[in-house]
Amino acid sequence: MTCKNGKADNDANEALPRRTDVPLHAMNAGDGPHSYVQNSSYQGGAVDIAKPIIEEEISKNLDIKNLSSTSPNGVWIADFGCSTGHNSFSAMQIVTQAIYKKHASSGRISGKVPKLFVVFNDVITNDFNTLFSSLPPHRNYNAIGVPGTFHGRLLPESSLHFAYSSWALQSLTEVPKAVAESGSAAWNKGKILYTRDRKEVCDAYLNQYTKDIEAFLEARAVEMVNGGLMALLIPAVPTSWNPETEYTIPSDINLLGSCLMDMANKGRLSEAKVDSFNLPYYFTTPEQLKAILEKSHSFTLERLEILNNPGKHTLCSVEARAAFFRAVHEGLLADHFGSEIIDELFDLYTEKLEASPVFLNPNNDKSIVILAILKRRLN
Questions:
Q1: Is position 66 within any domain?
Q2: Which of 85, 206, 323, 376 has the fewest beta carbons closer than 10 A?
Q3: β partners of residue 116
């Protein structure tokens, strides 16, 4: 934890367990043509639609009385999975302004507004240099970087007032072990993600996802103050959709996987290399996520909204769609297959997108984003 006050840093890191099974995977760094900065409008589309809901929930549900009594050193906000900040900055502006407005309307101004601190968190390989070099110059908060996995503890106990995460909680701490074992009923041979026709693989991924969401909630339960709020924007899929005429993000990923198999068939890489590669993501359905969140003993589920894939029209060409997936997946792909295959892989992926009448139309993208608002129960 990078902090002006060194004591907070020491307190936060004492006795906090560090997981070693987490894929050290970050979005593409910098601001070049293949960077996440230049290719994350799809993810950013959710922020504007979520804005009035987040503002309403802060106004209605944030316990300003408790917040004032527990924040002599300021109000602390965290974005878990911030990447290089391109979409995070607009979200943090929404949150901080709503907190200021709530504070002012409470009649507790007493001459000054609270000092706000925003913790930007992502994996240790994240490009924090780009994030901090592009911070808004006139922001209304102090910025702090905390590298590490958000599935474990990162912050001091009872220090956090508002938690936020967008397009990050689909990430798993690990690929389910059974998926990579050739003798297992869940062996995912020839695929890089689960498909709906392989129940054993889907179940293995869902079980891992459930464990990881529960671990995220357990860590935040220790870090958050009583009455603190959490807003989670989670990419998801509808319960049903027609794969013949529609697609979701898992469809896109499996199309990319078919390109790897094509390259294996041409001798560009080994089929065994593809068989041993599975992406550590799970895209939940609303029903699955609601069931997981409602089991929590530390949080109440205040609101669950389905946002109808607000970013889909930002990918107006197959080149834009390929660039989006490259910015997200290149690190994992290069680590496993080598960087020398990346250009060829995404050229082939672009060709497959162009040849598909389904993927050419963004209206066929049935991916959704779920906005979940949770409140920390009183101890």
A1: yes
A2: 206
A3: 75
- Dump pLDDT digits (tens) for 54-66: 999 999 998 766 6
For the stretch 334-342, contacts whose Cβ atoms lie closer than 8 Å and that sit 24 or more positions apart, written own/partner, are 335/25, 336/273, 336/276, 336/277, 337/260, 337/269, 337/273, 337/277, 341/263, 341/268, 341/269
Do 306 and 368 meet the contact criterion of CB atoms below 8 Å apart?
yes
Please name the amino acid found at residue 79: D
Across the chain, what does the average pLDDT equal?
A: 87
Domains held by the chain: number: 1
Query: Does some domain include residue 202?
Result: yes
**Structure tokens of 273?**
């290399």
> Domain containing 192: what range?
24-376
CATH number at residue 118: 3.40.50.150
2 domain residue, yes or no: no
> Comparing 314 with 129, which gets the higher pLDDT?
129
CA atoms of 157 and 235, how far apart (whole Å):
29
Q: Residue 378 CB: number of other CB atoms within 10 A?
A: 8
At 362, the pLDDT band (50, 70, 90 cuts) reads: confident
